[in-house]
Amino acid sequence: MKKNLIRFNIKAGLAIVILTGLSACSTLGVEPWEKDQLARADMALDSEKLDMALDDHIYFSKEGTSGGRSLAGGGCGCN
pTM for the whole thing? Predict the structure, then answer.
């Protein structure tokens, strides 16, 4: 009787873990009614021109070069 209860608990626990894992990916992505919020101009990564200019200046000061904002790396060559 005790072994059956232990087996049942193990099976129930495994089922809960599997169902939780399957439901974890059920809400990935953006829903169609949320896309209008993300398409606003103030949601863009480069919406503030002054912030972009300051970021460029900081990058230029650190790296000794200009341009190439989209590349990763810290200047040590380790990317």
Answer: 0.33
Render pLDDT for 18-43 as a digit per residue (tens, 0 to 9).
988 887 776 777 888 888 888 888 77
Tokens standing for residue 8: 């049942």
Residue 68: both structure tokens together: 């190439």
Q: Name the token pair of 69.
A: 């904002």
Could you give the CA distance from residue 22 to residue 13 in angstroms, rounded to a whole number? 14
Q: What is the dihedral of CA 26, 27, 33, 35, to 10 degrees?
A: -120
Query: Residue 65, CB half-sphere, CA atoms under 13 Å: how many?
Result: 7
